[in-house]
Amino acid sequence: MTGARPDVAVTGIGLVTPAGTGREATWDGVCAGRPTARHVPELKGLPVDFACLVPDFSPRDHVPGSRPWQYDRFTQFALHAALEAVSDAGLDPADWDGDRVAVVFGSSAGGTGTMLDQHRKLLELGTARVSPLLLPMFLPNMATGQLTIHLRARGPALCTVTACASGATAIGTALQLLRSGACDIAVAGASDAVVQPLWVTGFDRMGALSRRGDDPRAASRPFDTARDGFVMAEGGAALVLEPASAARARGRPGYALLAGYGASSDAHHPVAPDPESKGAALAVRRALDDAGARPADVQHINAHGTSTPLNDAAEARLIRRLFPHQPSVTSVKGTLGHLLGAAGAVEAAITALSVAHGRVPPVANLEKQEGDAEINAVTGTSRAQPVDLALSHSFGFGGHNAVLAFRSCPTEPAREPAAPSP
After folding, report:
1. Residue 380 counted as domain residue
2. Catalytic pick from 31, 164, 183, 409?
3. Is residue 44 part of a domain?
4. Name one GO molecular function term (predicted).
5. Which of 75, 211, 370, 409 to pair with 128, CA 20 to 30 A apart?
6. Could you confirm whether 304 is annotated as catalytic?
7. Has residue 52 been placed in a domain?
8. Could you tell me the pTM of the whole model?
9. How far apart are CA 350 and CA 352, in angstroms?
10. From residue 241, how far is each of 97, 247, 257, 258, 269 by CA, in Å?
C-alpha cells in the first residue's frame, strides 16, 4: 500500500471471558453489569480463594482440531477468539492471501498452567514424565504461532508482552503494521490463563488483590471508595483489522475505526503507577494526536479501572485533568475481573462494540466515588449514548501504558446489537 494513510476498520471481534464464550455472551454480560467472581476449588485454603473464570469452556467443543489437549489453556482461548473474529469478519483463511495476513497476539505470561504442572511432574516423577510438548505449550509466543498455523497466516507474527497492557500493545502494533503496508489484514488480541495458586499468592503477597472473600461478587469495584484490590480473571479477545476501503469493497460494515494508538512508559516504579500520571497522560495525548483529535472530542473512555487504590485514584485524576467536559467512563473489570495481559484486548473489543451499538456498559459494584476524583462513571445499568470517539486505557506493571482511540464508521450503519439482559 502506498499514498495516504488508510483508515483501519475493526471488522471482526471474538471474545472468551468470564461472562461467557463468544462475543454476544460477553457483550450481554457487561451490559447487564453481572459480576462473575466466585470461589474457586483449586484456590481453597489460600487467603484469596476466588477469581473470575471462563464458565463451561470445553476444549473439545471450543477448540479446533482433534487434539485440543496439546494446547495450554491460554492458547485455547486465543484460538477460539481469533477464529470467531475471522468468521465474524466474513473472512475465510482458505481464500485469503496468507502472505499478507499478520498475527499480533499478547500475553502476560504464556502457558504457566502447563509449566507448573510439568515442573511438579519433574520433581515428583522424574524427567521421563515431563512432556515433550512442554515448550510448545508454555512459551508465550506459542498462541501467536498456533494462530498462524490455523489461519494460514504467513505475514508478520509477533507476541507482545507488556504486562496488563499486552493486548492493547498488540492491537496498536497491528495498526502500525497495516499502516506501513506490511500486511492487508491483521488478527490482533491477547489471552491469559493464570488463575493458579502460585500466581494468586504472588499477587496477594504484593497486596494487589481484594480480600473480600465473604462476598466475591462485590469484590471488584473500580473507582469505589471501598475498593481493596483487583480480582484475577482469565480469557482472551481478538480483533480483525483491515483497511476500511477494503472492508467496504466486500460489503462488510465495520464496528468502528481504530483511529489512534499511543504508548509510553512511566519510568517511575516496577508495579506502582506514577501518582501524577505523566506517562499515562503522554500515551493519551499520543493516541489523540495519532487520531487527529483533541481531548474535547472524546465522548467515552473505557478505563483501565483495576479496583486497586493506587491505580484508580491516579487514573480518575488523570481523566478529570485531561477531560474536564466529563465524557462517560466505564471499567468492565467490575464485571469480568482483571484478565491481566488479555484485559486490554477485551476492553478494546468492548469499546468498539460501544461505538458500534451506542451503548456504554456500567461499572459493576460502583456505589460511591472519592470526592476529589469523581468521574462521569456509568453505574447501575448500561447507558444508551452515541459515541463518535472513544478511548481505551491500558496500563501495566513495569510502567507500560497503551491507549487506543476508536471512531465511529462514518458511512456504515451499526450492526444490530445483542439485546442486553435486564
Report:
1. yes
2. 164
3. yes
4. 3-oxoacyl-[acyl-carrier-protein] synthase activity
5. 75
6. yes
7. yes
8. 0.95
9. 5
10. 15, 9, 9, 8, 34
Whole domain around residue 273: which residue ranges? 8-407
Q: Tell me, what amino acid is at 237?
A: A
- Cell digits of residue 84: 470467531
Rounded Cα distance between 237 and 371, Å, is 34
Task: Assess contact for 373 and 256: CB atoms under 8 A.
Answer: no
**Which of 62, 300, 304, 357 is flagged as catalytic?**
304
Return the C-alpha cell found at 85.
473474529
Phi/psi at 318 (5° precision): -60, -45
Structural domain count of the chain? 1
Contact call for residues 18 and 54 (beta carbons, < 8 A): yes
CA distance 316 to 248: 38
pLDDT in tens, 252-261: 889 999 999 9
Q: Which helix (H) or strand (E) holds 147?
A: helix 142-151
Check which CATH number belongs to the domain holding 314 and give it: 3.40.47.10
Catalytic residue, chosen from 62, 80, 300, 338, is 338
In angstroms, the CA 69 to CA 59 distance is: 7
Tell me whether residue 416 is in a domain.
Answer: no
Give the number of other CB atoms < 10 A from CB of residue 136: 17
Query: Tens digit of pLDDT for each residue in 183-238?
Result: 999 999 999 999 999 999 999 999 999 999 999 999 999 999 999 999 999 999 99
